[in-house]
Design a protein that fits this description.
There is one protein chain. This protein is mostly helical. It has one domain. Helices cover about 55% and strands about 0% of the residues. It has three helices and no strands. The protein has helices at about 10-25, 30-40, 45-55. Helix 1 (about 10-25) runs antiparallel to helix 2 (about 30-40) and helix 2 packs antiparallel against helix 3 (about 45-55).
Length: about 70
Amino acid sequence: MRESLRPRGEALRSAARRIAVRRAEEPETPMVQIITEAARHFDLSPSEEQMLLSDLLSGSEESPHAQV
């Protein structure tokens, strides 16, 4: 099924599932890379990608806003 025919929000849910699986399988891969690749694969909007980045990276060492 093409992403453009998916119900609203399904691409975001699919991306989240893919991120979780990939993170478990490849913990050494930077989370930013995993999120960016999933966003491209599922054709997420910039705001959806930003939401994933802020939600999944908040407080992590990979976050650009994390305090060191």
